From TrEMBL:
GO terms for molecular function: kinase activity. PANTHER family: SUGAR KINASE (PTHR43095), XYLULOSE KINASE (PTHR43095:SF5). It comes from the Bacteria. This is ATPase. Gene3D superfamilies: 3.30.420.40. Belongs to the FGGY kinase family. Residues 15-238 form the Carbohydrate kinase FGGY N-terminal domain. GO terms for biological process: D-xylose metabolic process. The keyword Membrane does not apply. SUPFAM superfamilies: Actin-like ATPase domain. InterPro entries: ATPase_NBD, FGGY_C, FGGY_Carb_Kinase, FGGY_N. It comes from Modestobacter versicolor. The keyword Signal does not apply. Keywords: Carbohydrate metabolism, Kinase, Transferase, Xylose metabolism.
Amino acid sequence: MTTDAVADITAGRTAVGIEFGSTRIKAVLIGSDHAPLAVGTHDWENQLVDRLWTYSLEAVWAGVQQSVAALAEDVRRRHGVELTTVGALGVSAMMHGYLALDADGELLAPFRTWRNTNTGRAAERLSAEFGCNIPHRWSVAHLYQAVLDGEEHVGRIAHLTTLAGYVHWRLTGEQVLGVGDASGMFPIDSATGGYDATMLARFDQLAAEAGADLHLAGLLPAVAVAGQPAGTLTEAGAALLDPSGRVRPGAPLCPPEGDAGTGMVATNSVAPRTGNVSAGTSIFAMVVLERALGAVHRELDLVTTPAGDPVAMVHCNNGASELDAWAGLFGQFARALGAEADSARVFETLFTAALDGAGDGGGMLAYNYLSGEPITGLEEGRPLFLRSPDSPLDLGSFMRTQLYSSLATLRIGMDVLQKAEGVRLDRMFAHGGLFKTEGVAQRYLAAAIDTPVAVGDVAAEGGAWGIAVLAAFATRRTPEQGLADYLETAVFAAASLRTHRPDPADVAGFDAFMERYVAGLPVERAAVEHVRVGQQRAAHPQITPVAPSEEPA
């Protein structure tokens, strides 16, 4: 127990950040020095229902209550006091998606997450009409696709928001969204800091042409930048967080943000020529721009930092999930041999083995596509591993291939940004589970984007810590202080980073792998076309099927 921590907690000189990630809900309590004091987590998973990825709202509230309860227990265990009040609060969640509510605040359709790629027609039409890239994931693409599909609920929509915006609304009663998250719902006008008025009007026209009477500006949340107040925790909101009643209402909340924005904060990557790569279920890069891009690229989303500065985002739906699956398989094999090894040791062993693999993956190929991948034009995914007959099958090269695969689609998007647009980067910061084994994925990312890559303990708690910092910023900054200055002087002044510069041999090896990867994409497309999800194994037309117990070994 530390006296300063106890004083901060009892006096309310704290901030709590809650982030809804793809596989985990995390709550982090920080003190007056922004250092984490306690953490609470809850694991959850999306569900594929009627061919759409979703989470139930019951899972949202059960998860946040369990993570807050775990946070309170961690406070008691570490510091010997009860968590009853906090100085500030912030909510973050996975960006994009579709949460449509009626006038009573009831959900009109199951929550559709960023992972869904059923919005191809809408994204293509809106991109052409707006003159900017509208990705499959964006809320406006989901809405327009629902219009095109004639979904009955469209005419009853009163509010449209993201997961972070929904939770914030239930906690505060305020329909508001941080500009970073809002920029993943609808394009932002850099001159006004709000939604682009011309595009809003055009959307209403397109909806009318398709038979829907919509006024989109009235459906979207208000937009706020980092540092602005965004409501306070109500009695009803406090009860949602903590049904036991220990957490008291009244805490101010910062604007809710998306996980991309909180990742930028957590890595001090909000200034031009900086960026970060976040690797989890998805993998994405955020690069803060010095100037406007010269052309529209379907591989690049234009979003903003939480302060409203322009950002190019390379978002790949598929990140480390397939790596997790392979690690799970190797863990099962180890246990079958009688060797007990926890998942952390399995990952470290496999990642370390990759360092001895062939520089180009040894002729192997892997596609980590559990879901569709818009950057490569795939609406569905099929995880795939293949090799040529003369490729040696050794553990090191296999694992290097799997790691390369997790970065390959990101590389395609970064090539557009770095080569076609000439964007320069001084440094990329990497965070997420992929980079926990020191010097492996960090090294391969540096090779993939030919840029120095830094990692460090500053992002250990990730986006939940990032939104807690944004909550602290909203209550502690001086009136004239911007977010970049606050991070540099008040949060990261003593941060320690480990930077890996790209090795020319690694760069050449990754380039060779990418040639093979791009050339093999038709194989992945064929797998999507010919292997259906949930398809039962069919009998060969010329072979009589046998019972499973009679199948040859």
